[in-house]
Specification:
By secondary structure, the chain is of the alpha/beta class. Helices cover about 40% and strands about 20% of the residues. Helix 2 (about 35-40) packs parallel to helix 3.
C-alpha cells in the first residue's frame, strides 16, 4: 500500500516514515504543500497523512485542491 506523507519537520517525518515502512507500507514523503500538490496530481495513493502547517502552501489549501478535483483518497490530518 502506497501512502503520501506530507510533513515538513524532519524528525517527525523520519519517525513516521520509518514506522510505516516497518509495517510494510510504501511511503512517499514530501516536505511542503507545493510538492504535495504535485505528488497528488501525478501519483496514486491509498491514503495521505497531511500536516496543516506547511511551507509554500498550507495543508488546508492542499486538501481543498484535492477535494476540488473530486479525489476521494482518505486524508488523515496529523
Amino acid at each position: 500500500m502506497r501512502l503520501l506523507l506530507v510533513e515538513d519537520d524532519p524528525m517527525i517525518g523520519e519517525a513516521v516514515r520509518d514506522g510505516l515502512k516497518l509495517d510494510g507500507y510504501t511511503v512517499d514523503w514530501v516536505r511542503d504543500g507545493a510538492a504535495a500538490d504535485t505528488a497528488l496530481a501525478t501519483g496514486e495513493f491509498a491514503a495521505v497523512l497531511l500536516d496543516l502547517g506547511l511551507p509554500r502552501r498550507d495543508g488546508l489549501q492542499v486538501l481543498k485542491t484535492l477535494r476540488a478535483r473530486r479525489d476521494p483518497v482518505p486524508v488523515l490530518v496529523i
